[in-house]
Amino acid sequence: MVSTHPTGVKHAGSQYLPQRSSTNAISPNQELLPLTAKVNSSDSLEIGGCDVTTLVQQFGSPLYILDEETLRTACQQYRDTFKQYYQGESQVLYASKAWNCLAVCAIANSEGLGIDVASGGELYTAITAGVSPDKIYYHGNNKSRAELLYAIDAGVNIVADNWYELQTLVELAQQQQPVRILLRLTPGIDCHTHDYIRTGHLDSKFGFDPGDLDEVFTYVSQQAALNCVGVHAHIGSQIFERQPHRDLAALMVQWLTKAASYGLTLTELDVGGGLGITYTESDDPPSIEEWVKPICEVIQEACTVENLPLPKLLCEPGRSLIATACVTAYTIGSSKTIPNIRTYVAIDGGMSDNPRPITYQSVYRAVVANKMSAPLTEKVTIAGKHCESGDVLIKDALLPKTQPGDILVVMGTGAYNYSMASNYNRLPRPAAVLVVNGEANLILQRETYQDLIRQDRLPERLKS
Ligand code: LLP
């Protein structure tokens, strides 16, 4: 087991690492749990000072449980590491596609982070959460005219992805102040992660092709309606390799130099997100510091060589800020043993609240919250409750003997779980609580059956 702690930071003794109680050891899964996780005297898992079993009694099941301390710690770690290693200005943006809701945006904002949004809906949430428009960066490869108008009116930074968008922006901006944009460029840098979450390679739907660079810079430099302030790239997600982001940083400085030759003074450089996290014992991602430091160094060195002033450096982590801060608690129900094959243990959620296993074959680990020190004697497959054979959350989970009513906690569910949740089979989406110092606040109300039919319309002629 590597010594990666749950924010993905490997610095035992760092000011950000609260000591865990050694008497309440919860290894081997300790590192996958939020920082405040411990086992209490009832042998029950506690997060943020709240007993998970009690939370489920109070708020229902399934339940997303978000640990405020772990989230804030990761925000601080990113923010302060940039301050430590980068001599210019820096701004960390939370990639809110990982989990976009009012409370999470408000926490990131209160830690000094800006917000990366990827749709009008995410933008609306960030603005409603009180995030200042100048700290919002709006991404997307096919923003609608209505979304662009909304973004222009709100005064946020728009990360222009393609020619159609640039031309639409020029058209829409004519009556207004010049629109503040960054250009998203495809770097042609590959990395090893799931095919669906690679974005930096040339065959990507995102960003301007590098072959278009001269034409794009020429066009942008001639448009009074556009105030182009920087460049952006994002090469993918759940990345463990270190070299791709170094290469990206070096390449992006070359883009700044090239832009200067077109009379464009670009002052912002946004390297995107992508740092991976520990989902299982075999994952060994770089720490936040190991990711941030070389990026800062490469940019500083390259700017010295190119004789460029240091740009404002931005990045957009999502997963590595929030994944480990959250667990999902489920209630165990039925089970089925197929002799010599496997035992299925079913829970009251599944692919609707965590679509990652069925979408990306993602692997998760789980513990039984009300039996934390029971011996791990069973190898079972955790099945969801959807009418779909592929609805399996974990294959071959090592658990204590379970019975209906036990609380299964799946770890590392903060990123791309709620944000990708659906109502498949018309399951209401779970509630989410924010826990800190023994207090639990509801941040997402559980959907009801009424919510499920709220948008349904029954034509008069079908009414019986
Ligand atoms: N910036 C941009 C432009 C992005 O597209 C993304 C993620 C990020 C930042 C944040 O990347 P992160 O730090 O979270 O790796 N649904 C997939 C992940 C899709 C990532 C999409 N873009 C999953 O569940 O693994």
Automatic annotation (TrEMBL):
EC number: 4.1.1.20
Positions annotated to bind substrate: R319, R356, Y360, E388, Y416
Modification N6-(pyridoxal phosphate)lysine occurs at: K97
Keyword Signal listed: no
Keywords assigned: Amino-acid biosynthesis, Decarboxylase, Lyase, Lysine biosynthesis, Pyridoxal phosphate
Catalytic activity, as annotated: meso-2,6-diaminopimelate + H(+) = L-lysine + CO2
Single GO molecular function: pyridoxal phosphate binding
EC top class, as a word: lyase
Pfam families in the cross-refs: Orn_Arg_deC_N
Gene3D superfamilies tied to this protein: Alanine racemase (3.20.20.10), Lyase, Ornithine Decarboxylase, Chain A, domain 1 (2.40.37.10)
Region (Disordered): 1-22
Cofactor: pyridoxal 5'-phosphate
List of catalytic residues: C387
Family (UniProt): Belongs to the Orn/Lys/Arg decarboxylase class-II family. LysA subfamily.
Subunit structure: Homodimer.
Biological function: Specifically catalyzes the decarboxylation of meso-diaminopimelate (meso-DAP) to L-lysine.
Protein name, as recorded: Diaminopimelate decarboxylase
Species annotation: Amazonocrinis nigriterrae CENA67
Lineage: Bacteria, Bacillati, Cyanobacteriota, Cyanophyceae, Nostocales
Record gene name: lysA
